[in-house]
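Pilot study result, target chain (505 residues):
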Amino acid sequence: MNRIRRLFLENTLKKKVFTFTLVLLMCFILAFAYTFLITSTINSEINQMFSTSIVLNELLEDLQQFEINLETYLSTKSSDSFVNYLDYHGSIKKYSEVLNYGNSTNSTLLQLNNIHLLLDQYLEESEKAIDYKRARNTEKYLERYSEILLYSQVIHQKVAQLEIHDFKTNLGKYLEMTENFKSIRLNFVGIIGLLIVLSIFFVLNFSTNVTRPIEALSVRAEAITQGQYDIEQVEGMYFKEAEVLKKAFQEMAAHINEYIKELEDKVDTENKLRVSETEKLKMQNLLNQAELLALQAQINPHFLFNTLNAGMQLAIIENADRTVFFLDHLSQLFRYNIQSLNNRVKLSEELKNVRNYYELMKIRFGDQLEMHLEAENNTMSVEMPPMILQPLVENAMIHGFRDKMDTGIITLIVKKVEEEVLVSVLDNGNGISDEKLKKLNAYDFKKDDHEAVQRGHTTGLGLENVYERLKHFYGKTDVLEIKRNGEEGAEVVLHIPISIGRGAK
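Predicted structure:
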């Protein structure tokens, strides 16, 4: 009780600071309460404005992923695609339950309920397509898949109509909120003005009453920094806190010499400890490097080759001809791929590697993938960097056949034209836009390569990597050309000099 009385009656800095802080705190609390109330109301209105649009946009994204995984499963019967299909099936089911508003006189809710009914039919058709796929009834599951696409188109149309309706409704709310913001800004200006006035008043009062004793204390502090520890006492302090500071300065001056000596001893000791700690860190770094090298040394490519060969021998013993075929091509592909990219190989070796890759993909995709080779015999000995053709074939599969329902055909044509060997990789895929074709022929591959890696590029070597290695290997820039293959599909043409130029690496 006495401490509280002294706080309000005695002339102390604590009293002034406490009073000013209390006033400011009350102002801030009132401003915060007002701001919180207004922002909560506005946030609630904004959430209400965009809640339907957010749900519908998330629904469309899940529908897109659902159809991609359903199509992949129906095409390849991939277990991963089926798992993803089930996940998105459950997600869409939840959206359907959220949009179930029953019979309503509200036009928006009625349209949302129609989307709910469409989603239920959509999911039923997908389940039928899965059942027909498992029953190997191709005609039926294709028929169900067509129905799914029709339902999807209708759902997209309904969502678009709702978004237009929401836009008109939200526009009116936005104009109303704009008017409200004007009054809110005026209130904020008034609150900030009041806080500024209070702050200026406190600063003027505080500076007038406190500046002189603080200046005296600063002079004494400056003297201490210059090594003058015998300081005369200064009278005329106005606040109790200043008296405490004066006594503290006297005690500090008395002990500072002792502290300086102790600090010098500590600094010397710490320097020795730092040297010791540095040596420990260097040793630990060497140990970490040794551990890393030891871990890396455990991975031996020969072990992988020997393991694949052992698997082939086991398959031969068990008369598993397809397994022998698969492991043989996988072993050859792996052995070829791990060689240094700085090596030189013959075109015939590259074609053989592409053939191995195709045989592996053929096992995976079956009749949905074909590859044809037309090559002149006098072109097989031309030299080139390794791992050039496989990335081009992969690129055709990833970009060209991504949404293709019928058989994807890749054709390799090798022919000699004057002093060059032209290697063309053609596909009958989805074609290529003018804008993208212009970028690729300007050697801007970054986005294209990033998408390829995200979609599972086996080698991780995109068009940019292929182009740069060819450019440095042959010492010329016009080594790669990309164009259309008729109305559909794309064609990548390599221009390989018969005799390697001086710029070759």
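One observation from the pilot: Residues 231-299 form one domain. A full batch analysis is planned for the follow-on phase.
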